[in-house]
Specification:
32% helix; alpha/beta; 7 strands
């Protein structure tokens, strides 16, 4: 499986990750990725950074490091309407946004509520990826999510961290099977993300690749094969 990009990584700015931006970028180069994306946690995640961090990402030259660099945010979905924790005037200055359900920011609710929260976030023009939508803590209607993602040209994530045997999203592999079945049904594209909080995990999609293969998921629906496919999503959002 061709895998040349990772756009779900974190730095010190997230508050619970352990490397600088430069260290993440240099690790991506060592691992021969063609693109690296950094999406630190948005401000409502306990311990994360202020709005100003994201406002000033315009200061970082995207072409200065010898690798394609994109800078975004992992937004917290804050309610069951899909509201997120950065305003539009900041989101429009970023390259992309991931939207995720995180327990410190929104409590798990019913299947209907959780689904509405994700579908609402999908409709936000800044959002190009839904982070770990197969988290068993938040039961969802995968048909509804996959169809909405297809309609709005948003990618659903295969989150490598979720599928670890010692991970804290126990049961994600089983939920991923349901999600991928829905994605096949609607032709919804997915993206593999490391969710790296330490440099050694940058570009590590081994668990995600295994899950995709176990479910006979078509490679043509996995965006990681070509940076151009990722940029295409950015242009249409």
């Amino acid at each position: 499986m061709i895998d040349v990009l990772d756009v779900h990584t974190h730095t010190y700015a997230s508050g619970h990750a352990y490397n600088t931006m430069r260290e993440v970028i240099e690790t991506a180069k060592i691992k021969h990725l063609n693109m690296i994306g950094i999406a630190d946690h948005a401000p409502k995640m306990p311990g994360s950074c202020h709005d100003f961090h994201f406002m000033n990402l315009k200061a970082v030259p995207r072409d200065a490091y010898g690798i394609k660099l994109v800078l975004g945010v992992e937004l917290n979905i804050m309610d069951y309407n899909g509201s997120v924790d950065l305003p539009d005037n900041i989101l429009t200055t970023l390259d992309y946004a991931i939207a995720s359900l995180h327990n410190p920011c929104i409590k798990p609710s019913t299947l209907e509520d959780n689904t509405a929260a994700i579908v609402g976030a999908i409709k936000n023009p800044a959002v190009v990826i839904v982070g770990h939508p197969d988290n068993p803590l938040y039961p969802v209607d995968f048909d509804a999510i996959a169809k909405a993602a297809k309609d709005y040209n948003v990618m659903l994530e295969l989150n490598n961290s979720s599928y670890r045997s010692n991970g804290y999203r126990t049961g994600s592999r089983e939920k991923a099977a349901q999600m991928l079945a829905a994605c096949k049904k609607y032709g919804t594209e997915v993206i593999m993300g490391s969710d790296a909080h330490i440099d050694v995990d940058v570009g590590n999609h081994s668990n995600s690749i295994e899950v995709a293969k176990q479910n006979n998921f078509p490679e043509e629906l996995i965006v990681n094969s070509d940076t151009g496919r990722f940029y295409k999503h950015l242009k249409t959002r």
